[in-house]
Amino acid sequence: MATSLTAMRPASFLAGLSRIELEPAEFAGIAAIVAVGGALAWLSGAHPTLAPQWAPWDFSWTQFLSCALGAWWYARGVALLPASERPGLARQAAFVLGVALIYAVLLTHFEYMAQHMFFLNRVQHLVMHHLGPFLIALAWPGAALLRGMPAPLRRAFDARRLRRVVHVVQQPALAAVLFAGLIALWLFPPVHFRAMIDPRLYDVMNWSMVLDGLLFWCLVLDPRPAPAARTSFGVRMIVTVLVMFPQIAIGSAITFSGRSLYPFYDLCGRLYPSIGALLDQHVGGTVIWIPGAMMSSIAFLLIINNMRLDEDRRDAARPPEDPAAAKATVHASAWTGR
Which residues fall within 8 angstroms of residue 228, CB to CB, at 6 or more apart? Predict the structure, then answer.
């Protein structure tokens, strides 16, 4: 199956960049990325059987540039940020790993495997919607990305209209409905079948998974308290718990179903013929059920930790107490151990 968003001419892309005021280092970095993309596109189109497993099976310029430029702008932004504002190594590693995982399931031979086994398709969506965006949100990369972007793009991302759209989509109730609803939508058997055979709808499915995952996890893993964050820590914990139950229900329904729900994989040919339709489906349902719920549990614990760290920062910012008043005050640290 060929995706629809692959038609892009590198020469025209670079010509468009030349009309933007870029520093020499910025243009050189983007030109190098486009050159690598051109080589991978040629290899994928002209000699797909000779391409190694890590090379794209079905090359997409939009997917490649999103991952490569995101990584380049982040690395450049980290280097340009003052030392006091630079993210720690753990956050940098989380961002790199998150982008690498999304790249691995979309722009390597794993893409072909995910189109021929239902449980691998579920692993792909778990990475695109949960694990990859989760790690990127955990890195909280906004400052570094904006610092590394060309100035015109920086202004575009900071535009009021775009911020309004993001603000609406990240309303807690709507964010929870979209997060669980998109999983249910793309797993509804008739919709799933159509998405797997229609290249345009297949692209929409993949992009919706990644973008919704980023918006949701950035909402709930925001390390800041309200009002700097969209909502309070308590609301974020509730939203994180609520999205578990639809995933558990959907995953368990697929796992315990006694009939084949996804005939597409029989029609296109299964990658592992020894794994029948029902076993493939049951393993795929388990992938939806257990890891998805575990991600919400981990996020819940991280929100509690962010709340604790915020309380510690506020305690440290308070002026010293009067010694006489302090003797008469019962502190939580006396029984919490903090």
Answer: none
Instruction: Please report where in the chains the tokens 């939009």 appear, as a residue.
Output: 62
- Euclidean distance between CA atoms 213 and 134, whole angstroms: 7
Rounded-to-integer distance, Cα 322 and Cα 326, Å:
6
Q: Encoding tokens for residue 171?
A: 């309303």
Asked whether the beta carbons of 262 and 193 are under 8 A apart, the reply is yes
Euclidean distance between CA atoms 152 and 92, whole angstroms: 25
Q: So what's the pLDDT on residue 254? A: 96
**Token pair 């570094």 is at which residue?**
144
Q: pLDDT digit string (tens) for 234-293?
A: 999 999 999 999 999 999 999 999 999 999 999 988 899 899 999 999 999 999 999 988
DSSP state of 331: P
Contact predicate 265/277, CB 8 Å: yes
**Structure tokens given for 132:** 């990859």
Decide: 132 and 101 in contact? Cβ < 8 Å: yes
**pTM across the whole model:** 0.87
Structure tokens at 322: 């009067």
Residue 134's nearest CA partner among 160, 178, 99 is 99
H-helix segments, 221-276: 233-242, 244-255, 264-268
Q: If we measure between CA atoms, which residue out of 171, 247, 279, 258 comes closest to residue 216?
A: 171
Q: How far is CA 22 from CA 7, 72, 151, in A?
A: 25, 14, 8
Q: Which two tokens stand for residue 10?
A: 């590198």
Which two structure tokens, joined as six digits, stand for 241?
């718990």
